[in-house]
Amino acid sequence: MDFLQLPPLQRAAGTVKLPGSKSISNRMLLLAALAGGTTEIRDLLDSADTRVMLTALASLGIGLESQGINCWRVCGAGGVFPVKQGDLFMGNAGTAIRPLTAALALSGGNYKISGVPRMHERPIGDLVDGLRQIGCDIRYTGNEGFPPLEIHPAEVKLSAPIKVRGDVSSQFLTALLMGLPLTGKTAVIEMTTELISKPYIEITLNLMARFGVKVEREEWQRFTIPGGQGYRSPGVVYVEGDASSASYFLAAGAIGGGPVRVEGVGKQSIQGDVKFANALETMGACIAWGDNWIESSAPADGKLKAFDLDLNHIPDAAMTLAVAALFADGKCTLRNIASWRVKETDRIVAMATELRKLGAAVEEGVDWIAVTPVLTLQENVGIDTYDDHRVAMCFSLAALAGVPVRINDPKCVSKTFPDYFDAFARVTAPVIAIDGPSASGKGTVAQSVAAALGYHFLDSGALYRLTALAAMKANVSLDDEQAVATVAASLPAEFAGDRILLAGEEVNEAIRAEEVGNGASKIAALPAVRTALLERQRAYRRFPGLVADGRDMGSVVFPDAPVKVFLTASAAARAERRYKQLIDKGMPDNIRPLLRDIVKDLEERDARDAARPVAPLKHYPDADLVDTTALTIEQAVAAVLDSVHRKLPFFN
Question: Under 8 Å CB-to-CB from 579, ≥6 apart: which residues?
Answer without folding.
Answer: 591, 592, 594, 595, 598
